[in-house]
Sequence to fold (644 residues):
Amino acid sequence: MASPTSPKAPAAVLTEGIRQRILDLLPRYPRKQAAVLPALHLVLEHLRCVPYAAMAEIAELLEITPAEVHDAMSFYGFFPQAPMGECRVWICRSLSCALRGGDELLEHACQKLRIEPGQTTPDGKITLEFAECLGICDFAPAALVDDGRIFGPLDEAGVDAMLDTVKQGRKPTQAQVS
Amino acid sequence: MANFEPVLSRNFSVPEGHTLKVYESRGGYQAARKALASDPDAVITTVKDSELRGRGGAGFPTGLKWTFLPKDRKETLMCINADESEPATFNNRLLMEKDPHQLIEGILISCFATRAATAYLYIRFEYIDAAAILERAIAEARAAGHLGKNIYGSGFDLEIYVHRGAGAYICGEETGLIESLEGKRGWPRIKPPFPAIEGAFRKPTVVNNVETLCCVPHIIERGAGWFKSIGTPKSYGPKLYCVSGAVNKQVCVELPLGVTTRALIEEHAGGVWKGRKAKAAVPGGISMGLLSADELDVPLDFESLRLPGCLGLGTAAVTVIDDQTSIVDYLYNCCRFFAHESCGQCTPCREGTSWFYKTIKRMKAGGGRLQDLDVMLHMANNLGIIPGTTICGLADGAAWPVKNAITKYRAEFEDYIKTHQNSAALPTALQERIAEGVRGDVDTIVLPVLPAAGVRHSPGKAADAL
Ligand SMILES: Cc1cc2nc3c(=O)[nH]c(=O)nc-3n(C[C@H](O)[C@H](O)[C@H](O)COP(=O)(O)O)c2cc1C
Ligand code: SF4
Ligand code: FES
Fold:
């Protein structure tokens, strides 16, 4: 990509810290490519998105092509290009939740936040998504926040309360606590 | 059953049961010490004798699977399947959150038996707490010498790495899991070769479910005979059953294999909610099909569920459907799930699952035709690894709810179709003509006016949900 006339390389998206954390994972696997998913998760955690430039840098670190990183990344529908809100909230729509009103609760949350599933509130606090079974059916109808908080069994008032709580920000992670 | 002693969940309600200290104080890691002092093949023999069958869905005999590893292999890998994404299933989550050391001990013994020095624990991303708890437990176990180099002086080394998924159901399929672990899209592989011969990074690989591995320490400790004294013929041992949906108490309980759905609902889940009756129940995750109200006394084990035409025991996760719920809503939900989760590499599955979804969506909206039912059945009978048209079993799981629901509730479907006709949702004249085999003429194509997108709707109304 670098031609002789190009001035200087654009600033790196990945910080030195993230690069090091990705490199630290490599001894775990017989092939560097196996670190793609953990690397994408690290980038997502820090940037709240995975821009194309980050994919190219991951590719360089793992000695694969950007297309290979993109191929894996795009399969999951999990790594957005534009930054997500501070909290990512999933509301389950699979069978056990649906039998208890999961779809209506998702609808209710959308109306309350005035966004569609997959969108982020204008204040950047919440990204709302639907999910297939979250594995928390003992809380059905249930929702999960990407900091680990589980909400359920929900009703409309429960969704309102959940959104109010989540707007306050993320739960401190274990690492920050200890 | 009266004197059944839960073992898998015995630490679930013990305070600090997830810590190494408490686990060891309750006899933890003694089975691992015993196993590592013996011979790997002796461990395999014990597991084989116990007739432990995989808890991940397929019910394959675990000991037998371990013997498929090539004798002359240089290296073995272990993948622990903690992707648990089958709707209504959450027992692996509890096993990892509440008793991570039981799982680590199971991994340690199983890796010793199969001589695997590296284990990848592939856990679905949504199990955020479980992943953190496991990371801490692994660090604890390592510091205490249960993992690492030369464990208990046996010369056996083991490292366990937690590897997190990214929200794809198909990565629970063992070869989809392996591809995903390798950093690629989670597309299941054509088998053979099976993972035991050529798995992750092309090395011989053992893939086992979390609950399967959690059974192993108890088998080593108490013996194969003990394990076989629990359960029904060909389905031995304890099992964590999950019950959710239209019940008063959504629970996970440990019981001998072979309890009935009725017993689960009545004795453990507090009965059907709102004083209603059960209309149907999903026996083991939605892929397994549907039991009608008359079939709730079928034992939930690996063999018996074939009789009522279900696919199998699956994950033994029961979802109860009450008598106020339309079977159309049930099938709509199942078809939507599989259309969303098909990985898309086999044409019959990719097209079939989305076609099922479109058809049932149209039917639900009032555009159903009686002949749709036969077309759906015909499709379902030709979809999956059982008829031999796809690479993996997701397609069979997509076909089974269609088959069971339409065969067992045909009258209700027909009635629904007849009484819910809505001209706006019916197939267009062009679609009808194409269905009849007439080729569309470009000049006469009139673009259909689609009905306005309805609000999201599921069978349980939020208003009367609680
Ligand atoms: C579509 C599909 C999804 C699956 N999902 C899971 C899963 O989430 N967890 C699991 O343990 N097994 C799952 N399996 C079964 C695995 O392919 C495999 O049989 C199992 O992990 C083997 O472990 P076991 O013998 O201990 O059960 C799935 C299979 C299919 C076809
Ligand atoms: S059957 Fe479906 S999910 Fe399985 S490999 Fe084929 S397309 Fe993918
Ligand atoms: S069905 Fe909603 S969490 Fe499992």
